[in-house]
Amino acid sequence: MSTVPSTNPLRAGRRLRAAPEPSTMVIFGASGNLTHRKLVPSLYRLFLEGRLPPGFTVVGFARRDWSHDEFRSSIREALEAAGLPNVGTELGRAFLESLFFCPGDFAEGPSYVSLRELLDRMDHERVHSGNRVFYLAAPPSTYERVAEGLGESGLARPEDAAGAWTRIVVEKPFGRDFESARRLTGVLRHWFQEEQIYRIDHYLGKETVQNILVFRLANAIFEPIWNRDHVDHVQITVAEDAGVERRGGYYEEAGALRDMIQNHLLQVLALVAMEPPAAFEAEAVRDEKAKVLRALRPPSTGQNGSTAVRGQYAAGVSRGGRVVAYREEPGVASDSRTETFVALRILLDNWRWAEVPFFLRTGKRLPKRVTEIAIQFRRPPLALFGSAVARGLQPNLLVMRIQPDEGITLRFGSKVPGSTIRIHAVSMDFHYGSSFQQRSADAYERLLLDCLVGDATLFNRDDAVQLAWRYVDGVRGLWEEDGSEPELYEAGTWGPVGARRLMGERGREWRRP
Ligand code: BG6
């Protein structure tokens, strides 16, 4: 009888079922938004489902002078505000009692010594494994210092002889350009080995983003047409109806190019465009994604406007009410040139995708919150039903809806009943909600669990991050070169006119999702 080969996709199933070992998670930035709104609620949901290991312990680290109990009440309020069940019951209390707090200053060595002492005590009393995850949910300007603090206090150790491991999770933004990303990698790699570093991009934890690979590679019918012979172009849209909300200060420094394109959109593009990996394993998947990012054609001088468009929202109507312009948002300069919208025309210089444009767009204060990938196929080679019919015929389109209303739609032409040939576009639809009863795990739940299990497949590797920055720096260079300002667009519309121009050849148009 033959054994299951190591590249069998079943391995992926086994991998996902692995149970995490007892461990402690230290969250730097424990008083912040991310910890309260995403990280701890996700850990709590995992706890309620019995998916956290026995003795699992969270240590919050921040500059507040909180006691363990004060940290617990702050988290308790956040869990209640999120409408999570059982917070006031014995179960909820058991979770809250697994939370501890270590007051400390990121910049000061003694804080890391106190942390180490607390961790040693936790290991002795509760965890009994020595396994640790350090989660950087603090402002990015602290990352290098925290890595050094951990390193200098001996907390960054590699796996020891008894198998106790240490991992570090780094939130985006990972640097603000190629150079700073390289420097940050240098500091992290001075203290940690690459296998210990988990660069998180929450888009990769979304159920529907993972389904891109399953859809492509667990079905035999799509992959043969997934290339330049059959695909006319690809559109990737990540639209938000929200404005910058209370993040004006951060956003002024970032802008949509750094905030969304460098990470989420280029990662999604890599999943759509990559070659099938030899195995569904971290290194094989990440090798293929990196090859796509390496194939991004650098934007060249003089191409602004036909390659990269940026916009900024003016006042308008959104979610049924008047909203202010970006420049009037709190924390934003009244003459700000930060872009809140980006549209790109990207070419990949590789065999599969040569000359097939990938159009990416993302923006705040667009008409609705929607993320989707649309693959538009070429028209049939022959107008068999007459040229008038062919002109009205819409090309085949495959739309993968990432959020909301997650699902997949395939559009094709069908004969309208009657004695003459008339063709009308119809569609086949798949909706997650109606096909599967169970709740999809939140992106952070999946990624936190993967990190505890030691599976880095859905995390970014050093080379991918740097390749994405290299491309993004090129786009920024184009904008700086011609000194143009972002084009204004009215809040609640699909972005600036320039975005349409970018598309406007061969009758291509942006979709109105
Ligand atoms: C974050 C960005 O990474 O992603 C935000 O910093 C953005 O500006 C958010 O709003 C969008 O994520 P999601 O999961 O709501 O699509």
Question: How are the secondary structure elements laid out?
Answer:
Layout lengths: L9 H8 L6 E5 L4 H16 L8 E6 L5 H14 L8 H7 L2 E5 L5 H19 L4 E5 L6 H10 L13 E5 L7 H14 L5 E3 L7 H11 L13 E9 L8 H26 L8 H13 L13 E11 L2 E3 L17 E6 L11 E6 L6 E8 L9 H6 L4 E7 L3 E9 L7 E9 H4 L7 H11 L8 H21 L4 E5 L5 H7 L10
Parallel strand pairs: 1-2, 1-4, 2-3, 4-5, 5-6, 7-11, 8-16
Antiparallel strand pairs: 7-12, 8-9, 8-10, 10-11, 12-13, 13-14, 14-15
Number of strands: 16
**Total domain modules:** 2
Sheet of most strands = 10 strands, mixed
Radius of gyration: 24 Å
Distance between the termini: 51 Å
Decide which structural class fits the backbone: alpha/beta
- CATH structural fold name of the largest domain: Dihydrodipicolinate Reductase, domain 2
Please give the CATH class of the largest domain.
Alpha Beta
| Average predicted local confidence, pLDDT | 92
CATH superfamily of the largest domain: Dihydrodipicolinate Reductase, domain 2
Note poorly predicted spans: 1-17
Q: What CATH architecture label of the largest domain applies? A: 2-Layer Sandwich
What bound compounds does this protein have?
Answer: 6-O-phosphono-beta-D-glucopyranose
Question: How many helical stretches?
Answer: 15
Describe the global form: globular
Q: Approximately what portion of the residues adopt beta-strand conformation?
A: 15-25%
